[in-house]
Amino acid sequence: MALEAIQSVTQAESRAREAREAAAARNRQRLADAQRQARQSAEEARQQAQAQARQMMAQAEERAAQLTREELDQAARDCERSKQEARAKLKEAAQRIVERVVDEKWPL
Q1: Is 106 helix (H, G, I), strand (E, B) or coil?
Q2: What letter would DSSP give residue 1?
Q3: What are the pLDDT digits (tens) for 52-98?
């Protein structure tokens, strides 16, 4: 009877040890799976952030290009207006120059 009790306790201890080892193996696998999932999630988030950053940069560059075109167009219009104003005053300026030259030489 004592031998049976010892064998029973030994078997129970053996089953408990096997159960602990199996539980530890399952926990190690769960941890490895969770770490792999976390790395995958982090990589996906990084890729999404990079894609979003590229898209935002492209939009900003397009907006900057549009603003540059608008500024250049406005500068061209301003330049053309200034040229036209200068052309309009050219005859008057030439006339004044001629008058001054003639006035200075006339008394001679």
Answers
A1: coil
A2: -
A3: 999 999 999 999 999 999 999 999 999 999 999 998 888 888 888 88
> Reduced to 3 states, what is the DSSP secondary structure of residue 108?
coil
Check residue 41 and report its DSSP letter: H
Global model pTM greater than 0.70: no
pLDDT digits over 20-33, tens only? 999 999 999 999 99
- Strand ranges in the chain using DSSP code E only, listed in sequence order: none
Distance (Å) of CA 89 to CA 75, 77, 85, 86, 92: 21, 18, 6, 5, 5
Rounded to whole angstroms, the Cα distance separating 55 from 49 reads: 10
Question: Looking at this protein, which amino acid is placed at residue 3?
Answer: L
Single-letter amino acid code for the residue at 64: A
